[in-house]
Amino acid sequence: MTREELAKQQEALVAALVAGGPPPAGFDSLALQATAVALLNKRAGEVAHRAPDLTYQLGAEFAARFREWASSRPKTTTAADTVSFRDHLISEGIIPPPEKSRRSLRRLLRLRLRGH
């Protein structure tokens, strides 16, 4: 097997695991599907940890909605997943847009910590 062939097989495997691609020849499709779901659950947990407000707003629907959204989107970073997922939820009308910017919220918290 050449390096190019190996690279193509690896690319197909990664696509099947994280981007909803078809299972490559020679791989157990059930095992790949189980691994893909496990990876989506791990991503969902990372986003939930980074944005607990989303888990609060979505409740029991959080994991399923995240898996549905992320199933055809390869991960770049957890921060990017969080921002993109939140934007998706807002654009679909699932959650309301934030009322205040993060900067305003930080300023308010600083003032409260100072006793104002």
What features would you describe in this structure?
It is a single chain. The protein is mainly alpha-helical and 116 residues long. The chain has one domain. 69% of the residues lie in helices and 0% in strands. The chain has helices at 3-18, 29-50, 52-58, 62-70, 78-91, 102-113. The radius of gyration is 19 Å and the shape is elongated. The termini are far apart.
- List SSEs in N-to-C order: HHHHHH
Q: Which secondary-structure class do the elements indicate?
A: mainly alpha
Number of strands: 0
Cα Rg = 19 Å
Task: Indicate the mean pLDDT.
Answer: 88
Summarize the amount of helix as a percent range. 55-70%
Distance between the termini: 69 Å
Count of discrete structural domains: 1
Name the beta content range.
under 5%
Low-confidence stretches: none
Shape: elongated
**Number of alpha- plus pi-helical segments:** 6
- Biggest sheet descriptor: none
Provide tags for this entry.
116 residues, mainly alpha
How do you describe this structure in short?
The protein is mostly helical. The chain has one domain.
Give the SSE layout.
Layout: H1 3-18, H2 29-50, H3 52-58, H4 62-70, H5 78-91, H6 102-113
